[in-house]
Amino acid sequence: MQEQIHFYYTNDLHSNFENWSRVVGYFKAEKERRISEGSSCWMIDIGDHVDRVHPIAEAFMGKANVQLLNDAGYDFATIGNNEGITMAHDDLHHLYDDAEFRITCANLHSMTDHEPEWQEPTINIQSAGGVKIGMIGLTAPFNAFYELLDWHMSPPYQTLEAYISALKKETDVIVLLSHLGITEDQEIARRFDDIDLIIGGHTHHLLRTGETINNTLITAAGKHCAFVGEVTLTWDHTAESIVKKEAHTTDITHMAKDLRTEQTLYDLSIRADDMLGHPVTHLEQPIEVKWFQQTEMMQKLTDTLKAWTEADVAMLNAGLLLDQFPAGDVTYKDIHHICPHPINPCTVELDGDELVEVIRASYTKELTELKLKGFGFRGEVIGKMIFSGVEVDTVIREDGHEYVEWVSFNGRPLDPDKTYKVATADTFTFGRLLPEIAKSESKQFYLPEFLRDLLADTLRTHFS
After folding, report:
1. Between the chain's N and C termini, which has fewer beta carbons within 10 Å?
2. Residue 273 near residue 315 (C-beta atoms within 8 A)
3. What confidence score (pLDDT) does residue 352 get?
4. Could you give the CA distance from residue 121 to residue 134 in angstroms, rounded to a whole number?
C-alpha cells in the first residue's frame, strides 16, 4: 500500500500582505481537498513572515502576524532573521505565546535564564497511515546581532549532527525547515544523507519544481508569497520507504482572495494606524527630502548618528528617507512611513586610506543611483552619501560626474595610519556595496534601535 503525504509552505512574506488573503484562500481549499481524500497534509511557514517595514508588524511587534498564521490554520513554523534580530529580546521571547501552531528552531538559544516556551528543537508527528515524520528547524546564525539581544545561535551543521541521529532512529522521514539560504541547503544535502526534504527560504530563491542533491529534495517559493509551495511524498508501506518525491510552486497572484482575511487585515490596519498615531513632535515648517542632494534633514540625522555612537565620522545615504515631512504634528506612523527600513546603526574601524576609498566610492554614480533591494534597505535608490566629522571637497569633471579631490579631518588630511571609528547603516556591512566597511574586522551593531529611532530624536532636537 502507498500513502501520499502533503506539505504546503510559505517563506519570506516580509509582511507584504498583498497576496496573503490569496494564500489563505488557496491553502484552505487545498487542505479541505486533501482531508476529503483521507491524505495527511500540513501547512508550514519558513520564517521572515514578520517584517517591521509594514505598519501592522511595527504596531503589534509581530503578534498580528502570528494571529494571521493562526487564522489561516498553519501547523508549523520556524523563525527567520526578521523575527530574530529586529526586535528586543522580550518581544521575540513572547512573540509566539498565542501561537496555535508549533515552532521549531534547534539552533536558537536564550542567553537569559529561560528558553521560550514555544521553542522546540525538533517535532515528531505521524501521518494518517502511521508514517513517523521528524521536523527540525534552523535559522541563519547572525550572532553578531543575536548576541547583542541575549540570544546565541549554534552552528547549523553542529546542530544537525546533534539531532539527526536521534531523529533517524525515531522516525521514517526527516524534514528540515531551513531559513539558511540556498547555498547552505545544498551543502546540508551533500553532508546529511538522512534528510529527506529541505523546505527553504531566506535567500528568496524560487525552485519551481525543487532540486535534488544526494536524494534530498530541496524546495523554496521565492518571496512575498507571489508563489506558494507544495511537496508530496509517496510512502510505500510494504517497502517501508519513500518511493517518490514531488515539489512544485503555484503562482497565486491571480487567485481569489479570502474575504475574512481581507477584513482582518483591514481591521488590523486601522488599529495599527491608531497605535502609531501619537505625535512625536510638531513642525512649523515642512522638511524637504532629496535623494541626490544635501539637505538639512539628512545632515542633522548624520550628525545625530555620529554623536549617538561617539564615532569620529558618520555617513548615511539620503535614500533612507522616502518622503517629505509636512508641517504640523509628526506621528510615529509618519516616521515609520518615511524611514521604514529594519536597519540598525553600526560602527566600524577603518584606517585613513580605507576611509578615503569608502568616501570616493560613495560619490560614484554606480552607488548613488543603485536600486538596492535587500540588506534591510526598503527604499528605491541609495542616493547621495552625507558625511559628518569629515570635510569632503569634490569637483564636477567634464563627464558630469562628481569626484573626490580632498578629504580632511579636523582641518587636516586623513592620516593613512590612524584608525577611525566610522558610524553608518548596517546595510553597508553586508555584500560588496562598500568592501572596506564589509571587510572591517571591528564592527559594533546597536540593537534593538533602528535608524528611525534616531530620526525621531533628530526631529525632536533640531526641528521642533
Report:
1. N
2. no
3. 95
4. 11
Question: Given this structure, which CATH class describes domain 279-462?
Answer: alpha beta
Q: What is the pLDDT of residue 398?
A: 78
User: Looking at residue 464, what is its pLDDT?
Assistant: 83
Q: Which of 409, 447, 418 minimizes the C-alpha distance to 314?
A: 409
Residue tagged 552625507 (cell numbers): 386
Beta-strand pair 197-200/216-221:
parallel
pLDDT of residue 138: 98
Alpha-carbon distance of 96 to 64, in angstroms, equals 10
pLDDT score for 397: 83
Residues 329/286, Cβ–Cβ less than 8 Å: no
- Predicted local distance difference test score (pLDDT) of residue 71: 98
Question: How far apart are alpha carbons 361 and 404 in whole angstroms?
Answer: 9
Q: What pLDDT sits at residue 441?
A: 92
Residue type, 84: G
Pick the CATH number of 2-271 from 1.10.760.10, 3.60.21.10, 2.40.40.10, 2.40.160.50: 3.60.21.10
Look at strands 241-251 and 227-236 and give their pairing.
Answer: antiparallel
User: Any idea where the domains of the chain sit in the sequence?
Assistant: 2-271, 279-462
List, for the chain, all residue ranges whose pLDDT scores fall below the cut of 70. Answer: none
What's the pLDDT score for residue 318?
98
> What is the spatial distance between Cα 276 and Cα 56, in angstroms, rounded to a whole number?
9
